[in-house]
Design a protein that fits this description.
This protein is an alpha/beta fold. It folds into 2 domains: about 90 residues, Rossmann fold (3-Layer(aba) Sandwich); about 150 residues, Rossmann fold (3-Layer(aba) Sandwich), CATH 3.40.50.2000. About 45% of the residues lie in helices and about 15% in strands. The strands form 2 sheets. It has a 6-stranded parallel β-sheet, sandwiched between helices. Strands 1-2-3-4 form a 4-stranded parallel β-sheet.
């Protein structure tokens, strides 16, 4: 700490006391690698302060086009040694303002979660909850109208619905209360089973996943789940995917019923034809091997 303070007083490189403190830590510990997610902006600063370190960044969710623009305005011109992507489309946006070696390896979180699909499924439809405490009127309207449509289709065809609650996620437990979330959907008139279980496990018990604008939809399609997207803002990733619509018309029902009737072989052929680029690397073999190689290098 004393060295950092002295360097700050000398102000040789016009850096802050925090920067000098970080530099002293790195000089003392001599780490080979620093790892952080895309919105850990400190990662870019560390690479500038301590160029000899191997910096690794990973994308923790699939950004929309407007989010890439916002991200670029914050980062401006960044540099990290390696960036691990969910899909190759992200590279097209990031390489414009980040100097890096881009590697497609899929979602780090999704890759680590391994759940076996049940042979006999319990539900026809799993709805990914988009509930939040302070929903704006536009998002609320989209949720209500689309789920009323789904509810009508399911009632006509005797389909069983389950809800993957947002309140069961670790990062949301203290922010969203289960009863409030449950009551929100009951007021809509949605008839469903409320399962307080991990969404990934619940997806393995369901034929089709209904997604509005959740990153979970993209993680599940990477695992070859049948996902129906409505009003998705992330269509930069789904341009040729047939099971996406922004309209609550007859075609909505037609597409939905077609998807639910498809067997896995036919659906996988459609995924391949659609050139869906979301990647799944079971147990993160790619990034783990990459890190091991750096650590073992003398």
């Amino acid at each position: 700490m004393l060295n950092a303070f002295i360097n700050y007083l000398l102000n040789i490189k016009k850096s802050t006391i925090k920067d000098n403190y970080l530099l002293e830590i790195f000089k003392k510990c001599k780490p080979k690698i620093v790892i952080g997610y895309a919105h850990s902006f400190l990662l870019f600063k560390i690479k500038k302060l301590y160029p000899s370190i191997n910096s690794i960044m990973y994308m923790h969710f699939s950004m929309r086009k407007d989010q890439f623009i916002e991200y670029r305005n914050i980062v401006k011109n960044g540099e990290v040694d390696s960036t691990f992507l969910n899909n190759p489309i992200e590279k097209r946006f990031l390489e414009k303002f980040i100097k890096s070696n881009f590697i497609v390896s899929g979602s780090i979180k999704n890759n680590e979660i391994i759940n076996k699909k049940k042979k006999k499924l319990d539900y026809d439809v799993m709805i990914i909850s988009e509930y939040r405490n302070n929903l704006n009127s536009q998002k609320k309207k989209i949720i209500i109208n689309s789920l009323n449509k789904i509810n009508n289709i399911c009632e006509k065809n005797d389909f069983k619905i389950c809800l993957a609650p947002v309140s069961s996620r670790k990062e949301k437990i203290k922010k969203i209360f289960p009863e409030e979330e449950k009551n929100f959907y009951k007021k809509i008139g949605l008839k469903f089973d409320y399962i307080s279980d991990q969404s990934y496990k619940l997806a393995n018990r369901s034929k089709v996943i209904f997604c509005i604008d959740s990153n979970l939809g993209y993680e599940l399609i990477a695992k070859k789940h049948k996902v129906f997207f409505f009003n998705s803002k992330n269509n930069i990733y789904l341009k040729k995917y047939p099971f996406i619509t922004n309209k609550l018309d007859k075609n909505f029902e037609k597409l939905f019923l077609k998807l639910i009737s498809l067997n896995n072989i036919k659906f996988n052929k459609i995924i391949k034809k659609s050139k869906i680029k979301f990647f799944f690397d079971k147990k993160n073999k790619i990034i783990k091997k990459y890190i091991e190689k750096i650590i073992n290098k003398k």
